Amino acid sequence: MDMKWKGLLAYNGADEENEEPTDFGFNWQLKGNMVNKSIQRRSRVERLSEAGITRELKDLPSWKRTDEKWIERKYRFKDYLAGIRFVDQIAAYAEEKKHHPLISIDYKVVTLRMSSWQAKGLTALDFEMAKTFEETFENAET
User: Fold this and answer.
1) Mean pLDDT, 10 residues at a time, over the chain (142 residues)?
2) Are 65 and 57 in contact (CB under 8 A)?
3) Signal peptide position in this chain (predicted)?
4) pTM value?
């Protein structure tokens, strides 16, 4: 791949190895000698309706809605370091997705809170990530 285009793919929010776009990226258009850049909004960052939130929460019975625009879940671990290892996995995934939960560590209990600031509420991405957090917890040493 030509290096100048590889750089543009990185700005397009794409992973340079597999070129799949991330949730927020830039849309580049070549017009003459000028490159125009615009931020793309994807449907996963649009605020869900009340019916959509209710439907998503049915798939996540351990998660609770708080303050209208948050979902929250507490995870209990056998010891402090097991919780820290879980948080390390969550942080790596959140960084990959460019969407970060609020994380609270209280000895053997880790609390995660999700919301989307851009949408001013809950989005499909929040619930997608919560499902991944559940899978991560199932595979963790609890």
Assistant:
1) 38 39 47 50 76 97 96 97 98 97 98 96 97 96 77
2) yes
3) none
4) 0.69
